């Protein structure tokens, strides 16, 4: 009985310490979030809510541990990239972010490109701008989804380039659909869009 009692007391102490550490970490995150404007803070709050949903689902055994780990890591990767973009641009703006592990690229691309060929700022399929790689326990590839106006503009340029090539011309006004820009500059040239859910379907 005495050993059982000691074990229970030790377990209670460990749980209390874990709760305290988690609370302090959350407090530090909340303080860091106040450095940003309402748009960025709202997105970071959205990610916190998504983590709470994932935590709740795994506690109810509605999802597997593998699902829980993958999506918790994805949320951390999205948070890290969101903070990086906000700090680099200095603007209260975030594009619609996507985070995909290597085996999930097929969910974004019909014919997934080789990750080793990605360049920061590169536009893929006139739809996604590659932002970079984030290691959150596992590697995630981060993309910004272009808004409809940007996509339409790129498709129009691609059409003009194709027509010019067919006519044997190389006009200066047309550029390839794949362009290189820095993430910070990219953030200043697009409209604010609603963030996509961080958890996988």
Mind explaining what this structure looks like?
The longest helix is centred in the first third of the chain and has 32 residues, at 2-33. The chain has a 4-stranded antiparallel sheet. It contains 5 helices and 4 strands, in the order H-H-H-E-E-E-E-H-H. The chain is α+β, with helices and mostly antiparallel strands and 201 residues long. Helix content is 52%, strand content 12%.
Q: How far apart lie the N and C ends?
A: 47 Å
Give the mean pLDDT: 79
- Tally of DSSP β-strands: 4
**Which regions are unreliable across 5 or more consecutive residues at pLDDT < 50?**
173-197
List descriptors.
four-stranded antiparallel sheet; 201 residues; 5 helices; alpha+beta
Describe the SSE topology.
Elements: H1 2-33, H2 38-59, H3 65-89, E1 96-100, E2 123-124, E3 128-136, E4 138-145, H4 148-166, H5 183-188
Antiparallel strand pairs: 1-4, 2-3, 3-4
């Amino acid at each position: 009985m005495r050993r059982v009692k000691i074990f229970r007391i030790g377990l209670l102490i460990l749980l209390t310490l874990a709760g305290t550490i988690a609370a302090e970490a959350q407090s530090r995150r909340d303080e860091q979030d106040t450095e940003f404007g309402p748009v960025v803070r709202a997105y970071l709050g959205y990610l916190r809510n998504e983590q709470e949903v994932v935590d709740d689902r795994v506690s109810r055994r509605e999802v597997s541990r593998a699902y829980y780990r993958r999506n918790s890591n994805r949320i951390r990767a999205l948070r890290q990239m969101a903070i990086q973009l906000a700090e680099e641009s200095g603007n209260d703006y975030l594009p619609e972010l996507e985070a995909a592990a290597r085996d999930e690229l097929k969910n974004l691309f019909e014919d997934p490109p080789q990750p080793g060929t990605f360049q920061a700022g590169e536009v893929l399929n006139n739809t996604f701008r590659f932002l970079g790689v984030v290691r959150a326990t596992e590697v995630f590839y981060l993309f910004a989804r272009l808004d409809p106006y940007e996509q339409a503009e790129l498709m129009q340029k691609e059409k003009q380039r194709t027509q010019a090539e067919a006519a044997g011309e190389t006009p200066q006004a047309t550029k390839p659909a794949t362009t290189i820009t820095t993430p910070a500059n990219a953030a200043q040239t697009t409209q604010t869009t609603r963030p996509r859910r961080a958890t996988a379907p």
